[in-house]
Amino acid sequence: MKLFIAAILLILLLSPSVAFAEWQTLNGVSYEFTQMRNLYRFRGTFSTSSNPNCLLHIFYDFDHLINFITHADSIISLDQGRDSYEVCYVYRKLLFMSRFTYRKTLIQQEQRIVFEMVSHEQGFFSFPKVLSSRGYYEIKPHSQGYTIVYFEEAQIGSKLPSGVVSMAKNEAVKFLEELKKCVERKCH
User: What domain range is 87 assigned to?
Assistant: First the structure.
């Protein structure tokens, strides 16, 4: 059995399509970005002593999205339910246009907001198609307050060029930093 596990680990380590990430810390946020073939994952955390009800409100409420989703050209509220709603994010850069619709769901008892892409449209000139995207915001208590966990994974139609991966990683870290700043401003 140990030989089997060692063989699998060796295959994973030597495979050029698998990237392992180490946790990094920058401006008070810790994060890791990983890639396995065409599956990309970002996990980030930061600590706060803010009230968890305020945090849930910030992470879930549509009106607060513009405070930390700074890279979208427009954000549109669509179908609103009691504990879930759909939101559309539109991105435009030169000939590139992309529109993502996500369903956000509040799970109060778990102090978690989950989101999942329900549709994706691309303009004429675009990068490989996003096949799926999902993730969550979670509030975890610890001895001196709370740890905020943000997780997102996306499966892309084909492997992205390394320059695009680097840009996506930078945008994810910037998003997490903006989220932390928003929490500090709104939930002090």
Answer: 20-186
